[in-house]
Amino acid sequence: MKESVYAEVDHYLCDLFSWNDPILAKTEQSIRDHKLPEHSISAVQGQFLALLANMCKAKRIVEIGTLGGYSTIWLGRTLGPNGKLTSIEIDPLAAEVARANVSAAGLSDRVHIISGNALEILSTMEEDSEPIDLFFMDADKPNYINYFNWALKRSRPGSLILADNVIRGGKLLDASSKDEKVKGVRAYCEMLAQEERASTSILQQVGIKAYDGLAISLVK
Ligand code: DHB
Ligand code: MG
């Protein structure tokens, strides 16, 4: 079947800018090899995340949902030697695969992958002397509001709080959905609409991944 024009454009841009380098390609392959969910962001989305990290001059990054480390590498590469990215992954196998990929990317000195329940780990995470500049949630959609509230307390004005997969192919529209992920992202978007401590833009995304979207919240 012919790919959608959205996917074709993704491939075109990816080639044009050489975004899928061997480390990232190997990372994607490792996800397939270990039969992990193929839920990584695309290269085009990775480049966008990296752009956001650079725009807020991120030195401290927290990620929820490492998977094979694909977005972790995109974000980790924006950090200088004193930067720190903590990524939390519930699946120990995925965490192990991600550690190997992060190591191959030469980022083990600044990227720390912790395996376990993210809310529990965050609740025991000691406050850094520096605020979190960028918080990226990409797992456990029913808890998005809880992650947001944690991130907000550790942020500074100008920090970014990002949430992947808030559109879900348009399922976001279904107010009577029984799907916990849909209910989670709906509650999250409704909360953001009322949240006065951050201003939010919800970006619909198309490409090689299913039609979805990213919530981008700028802490005031
Ligand atoms: C799902 C999770 C993701 O992070 C993603 O990018 C796509 C789908 C999911 O759990 O359905
Ligand atoms: Mg995702």
Question: Could you describe the 3D structure shown?
Answer:
- This protein has 220 residues and is of the alpha/beta class.
- The chain is built from eight helices and seven strands, in the order αααβαβαβαβαβαββ.
- It has helices at 5-16, 22-33, 43-55, 70-76, 92-104, 118-124, 144-153, 180-194; strands at 60-64, 84-89, 111-115, 132-137, 155-164, 198-205, 212-219.
- α2 packs antiparallel against α5 (92-104) and α3 (43-55) packs parallel to α4.
- The longest helix has 15 residues, at 180-194.
- It starts with a helix and ends with a strand.
- Magnesium ion (MG) binds at residues 39, 138, 164-165.
Summarize the topology.
Blueprint: H1 5-16, H2 22-33, H3 43-55, E1 60-64, H4 70-76, E2 84-89, H5 92-104, E3 111-115, H6 118-124, E4 132-137, H7 144-153, E5 155-164, H8 180-194, E6 198-205, E7 212-219
Parallel strand pairs: 1-2, 1-4, 2-3, 4-5
Antiparallel strand pairs: 5-7, 6-7
The structure holds 3,4-dihydroxybenzoic acid and magnesium ion.
Taking all residues together, what is the mean pLDDT? 97
Q: How many beta-strand runs? A: 7
Report the biggest beta sheet as strand number plus sense, adding barrel if it closes.
7 strands, mixed
**Stretches with pLDDT under 50, minimum 5 residues:** none
Helical content class: 40-55%
Secondary-structure element series:
HHHEHEHEHEHEHEE
Which word captures the global form?
globular
Strand order, biggest sheet?
3-2-1-4-5-7-6
Q: Which percent band covers the strand fraction?
A: 15-25%
Structural class: alpha/beta
Total helices: the number is 8
Rounded to an integer, what's the Rg over CA atoms? 17 Å
How widely separated are the two ends?
A: 46 Å
| Ligands, ions, cofactors | 3,4-dihydroxybenzoic acid, magnesium ion
